[in-house]
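ok here's DUF1275 domain-containing protein, seq below lol
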Amino acid sequence: MRSLLTDAAHTLVPPKGDRHGPLPPLMLALTVVTGLVDAVSYLALGHVFVANMTGNVVFLGFALAGAQTLSVLASVVALAAFLTGALTGGRLGTLFAGHRGNLLKTATAAQTVLVAVTVAVTAVAAGRVTTGVEYTLIVCLGLAMGLQNAVARRLGVPDLTTTVLTLTLTGLAADSPAAGGAAPRPGRRILSVLAMLLGALVGAELVLHGHLVSTLVLCLLLLAVTSVLTHRLSAGDPVWTRPPS
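and the structure came out like this:
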């Protein structure tokens, strides 16, 4: 328990000289965004995921088999948008290969713009999800989440992928003392799960009560703050901005 609390504390407030610096708490904020975004996509956009591509591929299979509540087109569009975003994230990763701060700052700024488009579209539509609104949101959010996933991969912070929890949960159990493991980073892994849960919970509460625009505005604010903080914290090229060894 003591090691779990210490690890959680170091994740939220990294000690001076930590090789990942402020990246863990910044990436936890992005994990909250993922929960919010998938609440929007699943609950408001016709049961499709824009961040969780494992679930989306499964949904595509169900839709192809004739499941009435799922759409083949929506799943395909979400996959295409996500892959395009991931491709863009990969290019950014190459462009900013020597500076993780600039990589995260640029990626979150691009995500902020994409989510701003969704806020504007839903606000103009007064929260009504027409076909046009639905596919605009799927494309923009899919691009943003693909970009985020690719950039998180390039940042290389263990157990903080920001969009996928399967391996995190597996590691939490498989590496535990009960399984004979050393239980590395248990606090960080648990915080990652809780961040996703928090985003999904808050997003679902807002969407289910008719506050779609507010949910997207919250995503927008989290991304914008993350981008600004990354810019300020990476000034002077501290050690953590260097590529992971």
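fwiw DSSP finds nine helices and no strands in the chain. kinda neat tbh
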